[in-house]
Amino acid sequence: MAVQKLPIAKAINESLRTALDNDPKVLVMGEDVGKLGGVFRVTDGLQKDFGEDRVIDTPLAESGIVGTAIGLALRGYRPVVEIQFDGFVFPAYDQIVTQLAKMHARALGKVKVPVVVRIPYGGGIGAVEHHSESPEALFAHVAGLKVVTPSNSSDAYWMLQQAIQSDDPVIFFEPKRRYWDKGEVDTDAVPGDLHKAVVAKEGTDLTLVAYGPMVKVCLEAAAAAQEEGKSLEVLDLRSISPMDFDAVQKSVEKTRRLVVVHEAPVFLGSGAELAARITERCFYHLEAPVLRVGGYHAPYPPARLEDEYLPGLDRVLDAVDRSLAY
Amino acid sequence: MTVDSADSTAAAQKAQPPRKRAAAKKSAKKSPGKTAAASGTEQLVQLLTPEGERVKSAEYDKYVTDITDDALRDLYRDMVMARRFDAEAVTLQRQGELGLWPSLLGQEAAQVGSGRATRDDDYVFPTYREHGVAWCRGVDPTNLLGMFRGVNNGGWDPNTNNFHLYTIVIGSQTLHATGYAMGVAKDGADSAVIAYFGDGASSQGDVAESFTFSAVYNAPVVFFCQNNQWAISEPTEKQTRVPLYQRAQGYGFPGVRVDGNDVLAVLAVTRWALQRARDGEGPTLVEAFTYRMGAHTTSDDPTKYRADEERASWEAKDPILRLRTYLETHTDTDAAFFTDLDAESETLGKRVREAVRAMPDPDRMAMFENAYADGHALVDEERAQFAAYQASFADGEV
Q1: CATH code, domain carrying B291
Q2: Residue A214 confidence (pLDDT) above 60
Q3: Where are chain A's structural domains?
Q4: I need a labelling partner for A323 at 20 to 30 A (CA). Which of A16, A115, A175, B276 fits?
Q5: Which CATH number is A198-324 given?
Q6: Do B374 and A168 touch (CB under 8 A)?
Q7: In angstroms, rounded to a whole number, what is the distance separating the alpha carbons of residues B97 and B270?
Q8: B324 touching A (Cβ < 8 Å)
Q9: How far A319 CA lies from chain B's nearest CA (Å)?
Q10: Which helix (H) or strand (E) holds B9?
Q11: Do B170 and B299 fall within a single domain?
Q12: Do A69 and B377 lie within an 8 Å CB cutoff?
């Protein structure tokens, strides 16, 4: 059956399964991805079906995981590596930034390093520290990397397919608190461009831009605003690098107001880049300054406080009201 | 055979009167690694002494039985050519033609011996100092100069000679080599991979992780550590309290220390290690005990941190000199061989000099090229902006 209703975690599992089936060069690597199926069970059953040679439990060394994946890619493989949690990617940050991102350019285009780094990210699951962070801007800032994040099951399936097929290294951020949200996946569909934003809900009064876990919050905010007679457009950005400024520009030229929402700290985050670009592109269209809703410039708080730190419905609506009040 | 190579520290300690020895012991306690890590008192494999005498080795002679006098002359030629190329590059840096140059002076035997041990289908992951290995792999020497002249950041196709790009971040390439070797094993090929690194890199986490991964997956990789005694200004004792080759034991694979200034011993030991990899016996660590005769790079000033006497003591162990002595004493190599080689190496120097001076600056648009394999909207946008900005000067001076 081509159309199935799947949670995001299962959609990613199906996507990996399809990739392993279609291309013998695809490998899945990471800590606990084999027998256990990953701490989130995203790789459940893959090792059983594809063997230890292709679904590889690695030593607990993130730099080693990414560094050896680079070597495997140079040999012609397409490794899809899993970093167990967002906060654990930093031992691999050096390999990702100094090696993975630059190798194609350094070799004057003669080698390709098609490595996908999957990272469950974001908060809202009541975890201990280092398990709830949103470091996407730290990767988007690096030329040579592509950074994407799905917000729903269909995108989770298709964007991962496209990331694996890409000849560029792709950092694939998975919204871990949405892993169990179900959505329809049509495995026979023709997917859209990996790096294009999509309109998740049309509206006329203000544009909300979000990605990953915050798309759901923004859709809820739009529904709540609707009851008060405000028509909000919600854009699911999907790709952080490259970023689809054209789509945001098009929406803002219509609504004349923009609020960007992400879990990551506001300071120097994706919203800062969008605010700068859209101000430049839509200066005469804007009725209000671009506003941002996101995390604070403080360490991610302990779980009992994370609901205060994370952008929720009320904080998004507050920013919407402030924008509309201009 | 294996011999004891006493170093100056050990000799100095022996020569001290008892009371001073006790004091030295006390200070050694504070820095326990000093004696064990940096000394050459550990046994090392040697087939050719610094005096140019061939010594027998029950274990390693069998790996060089095919090395005829002609083959020895070839190795000698490789070392001379590598040294001449290197000297030319240093000169070119002094003349302002290169921004920087990391000299291999003193490490010719370690690089030629190991480089000549590899097969065409093997894969090499170098640091940024493996000019002699590059020579053995057939890489055009002028290709190595591009990044040091500042016209590219790598600049050759690694797959042409199975010689990866120079890696400047210390130790990173050991993981790439390990991953590549894991791929070789998956492919069922009998190629081997060799990863170069230095005594300084031995402290890097990536090197430790590459040891772990290669051991766990039994990857066909040889870790070739050129212990040249100095990581810029830091002696090996700042990196380790055990001899580096012994690190392998903790990971479950063999480690061997070889006289890195003995091209024949390096060839034998590396052939042995590569054969282990081909035979599915997994990784090996080779520590080539050698000496960086020159500065770390042309920007470095070794007079700030090491004594001239130390260099002088290593000059007596020069890798080229000892093979020349052997060739002159024990083979029918005539004087013409050496004069012809001098002329050939001068020709190489001239060719490199001319090639570098003729090396054009890249087109300014090149900085946008190959940032991505599949393209990137922002790069396209910024490239167009930059081109338009440049075009705005079209009427005036550019």
Answers
A1: 3.40.50.970
A2: yes
A3: 3-186, 198-324
A4: A175
A5: 3.40.50.920
A6: yes
A7: 35
A8: no
A9: 28
A10: helix B8-15
A11: yes
A12: no
The verdict on B71 and B112 lying in the same domain is yes
Please give the CATH topology (third level) of the domain spanning A3-186.
Answer: Rossmann fold (3.40.50)
Domain residues for the domain of B373 are 367-398
A158 has pLDDT over 70? yes
Cα gap A213→A262, rounded to integer Å: 8
Question: Are residues B260 and B302 located together in one domain of the fold?
Answer: yes
**Domain-embedded: residue B19:** no
pLDDT for the residue numbered A296:
98
The Cα B50–Cα B322 span in angstroms is: 5
Contact B177 A58 (CB under 8 A): no
CA B319 to centroid of chain Cα atoms: 14
Q: Which of B152, B179, B212 sits opposite A61 (nearest CB)?
A: B212
In the structure encoding, which two tokens stand for residue B212, read together?
A: 């772990």
Asked if domains A3-186 and A198-324 share a fold, the reply is yes
* Cα nearest neighbour of A66 on chain B: B175
Contact B211, B246 (CB under 8 A): no
Structural domains in chain B (count): 2
Q: Nearest Cβ partner of B175 from A63, A103, A144?
A: A63
pLDDT in tens, B118-130: 999 999 999 999 9
B94 labelled catalytic: no
Nearest CB partner across the interface for A107, out of B165, B172, B175: B165
Q: Which residue has the higher pLDDT, B320 or B5?
A: B320
- Percent of chain A whose predicted confidence (pLDDT) is above 90: 99
What is the rounded CA–CA span in Å between residue B111 and residue A293? 57
- Contact B332/A at CB under 8 A: no
C-alpha A138/C-alpha B327 separation (Å) is 58
Mean pLDDT of A134-160: 98
The answer to whether A240 faces chain B, any CB pair under 8 Å, is no
Could you tell me if B328 and B372 lie in one domain? no
Task: Mark whether B148 and B91 lie in a shared domain.
Answer: yes
Contacts of A25 in chain B (CB under 8 A): none
The share of chain A scoring above pLDDT 70, in percent, equals: 100
- Looking at the domain assignment, is residue B385 inside a domain? yes
Average pLDDT, chain A: 97
Residue B321 CB-half CA count within 13 A: 10
Contact B371 A144 (CB under 8 A): yes
Catalytic residue among A104, A130, A131, A141: A131
Measured between CA atoms, the residue of chain A closest to residue B168 is: A98
Domain membership flag for residue B200: yes
Beta carbons of A53 and B376 less than 8 Å apart: no
Does residue B398 have a pLDDT over 60? no
- Chain B stretch 151-180, residues whose beta carbon is closer than 8 A to a beta carbon of chain A: 152-159, 164-165, 167, 169, 172, 174-180
Same domain, yes or no, for B307 and B371? no
Model confidence, pTM: 0.94
Do B187 and B70 lie in one domain? The reply is yes
Tell me if residue B227 falls in helix, strand or coil: strand
What ipTM score was computed for the predicted complex, to two decimals? Answer: 0.97
Sheet holding A232-236, edge to edge: A198-201, A232-236, A206-210, A258-265, A291-295
Report the mean per-residue pLDDT for chain B.
Answer: 91
Whether residue B116 sits in one domain with residue B154: yes
pLDDT at A297 over 70: yes
Residue to substitute from A106, A165, A237, interface B, most B β-carbons within 10 A: A106
The C-alpha atoms of residue A105 and residue B369 are separated, in whole angstroms, by 7
The token pair that represents B349 in the structure block = 């120097």
